[in-house]
Amino acid sequence: MATVISGLQGKADGSQLAQNNHVLSTAKHFVGDGGTTYGSSTTGSYKIDQGNQMGGWSITWQGGSGPTTTGRTIMDGIKQVVPTATFSADASAPLEGHDVGVVVVGETPYAEGIGDVGNGHDLLLSDADKAAVDKVCGAMKCVVLVVSGRPQVLADQLGKINALVASWLPGTEGAGVADVLFGKRLFSGRLPVSWPRTEAQQPLNVSDASYDPQYLFGWGLTTQAAARQKLTDARNTLLRQHDPYALAAGITAGVALQVKVWSGPQATIALAAVAQSAKFLERTKADTFAEDDAVVGTARWIAQNHIGQNVTEPTSKLTSDAEHLLLTGDLSAASKVG
């Protein structure tokens, strides 16, 4: 699942593309919608093709670049939405006249020890990847898609990038990345690992005495609309249960939904409501993880909206702890720190 880990300020068709949490939900305004798109992937390290999207253990043990099987690439997906999108394999095509650049960087396939860091590999972008980001993002608004099986160190490039998406390895259906990029589907992914600032931070875990990642475990930007839809679905499910605590959890979730804007001064009302809903959820057996995640996710959305891109060591610890508490079932504590 693609994960937005940083984004651009602005508005698009009623959904925001924002540094502080409303990112690329309806990005067709940003990446198309009558405008022109410039796509680039570097030839020095990463190339948009089916094999690179598959990664290792695909067709062969180590996988391989090129048309190793059938499917659609990320560029195929972009072309379906914006047929006039310009593609340049090395960012050498003219940059003028485009509204936005989509730069794809990442790793070529590997498996097991052959791809290990220190065994001829590292987590850094290649020089060619860096040059493409610098060139395209220096000329226009840009989205950088990282196609890899592990985090890449991007700290030096972040100041140039308007929106950053961890696309992971989309396999044969790279067009799925375009679906979320252009708003056909909403971004909802969260990081399953901590994203390091530097290679020297590895190994990097939430329990470390000093935990200061570039992006923390569980981080992932989405729109308020997506978070509200999840909570609405959870409320409706809970209200259908024949359990007093599930019903109470649904009713209090509904109170949070009555707050029209979770980023405004009434956000504290929504927070208090989901905190109470979480307490009721802990006392019922009629819930599932989907309802638990939606309730805690509301608190997470409000917290991440407040944090924005100011991801410091204290905020990293708090929000990653909330993710752990959610996974262990301590919902009320998760909703307080999340």
Kindly describe this structure.
The structure is a single chain. Helix 3 packs across helix 5. It is built from eleven helices and eight strands. It has two domains: 187 residues, Glycoside hydrolase family 3 C-terminal domain (Rossmann fold, 3-Layer(aba) Sandwich), CATH 3.40.50; 114 residues. About 10% of the residues have low confidence. The strands form two sheets. It has a six-stranded mixed beta sheet, with helices on one face. A two-stranded antiparallel sheet has the order 2-3. Strand 6, helix 4 and strand 7 form a beta-alpha-beta unit.
Number of helices: 11
Could you list the spans in which at least 5 consecutive residues all have pLDDT below 50?
8-35, 41-45
DSSP strand (E) fraction? Answer: 5-15%
The description of the largest β-sheet is: 6 strands, mixed
User: What is the succession of H and E elements?
Assistant: EEEHEHHEEHEEHHHHHHH
Identify the CATH homologous superfamily of the largest domain.
Answer: Glycoside hydrolase family 3 C-terminal domain
Task: Compute the number of strand runs.
Answer: 8
By CATH reckoning, the class of the largest domain would read Alpha Beta
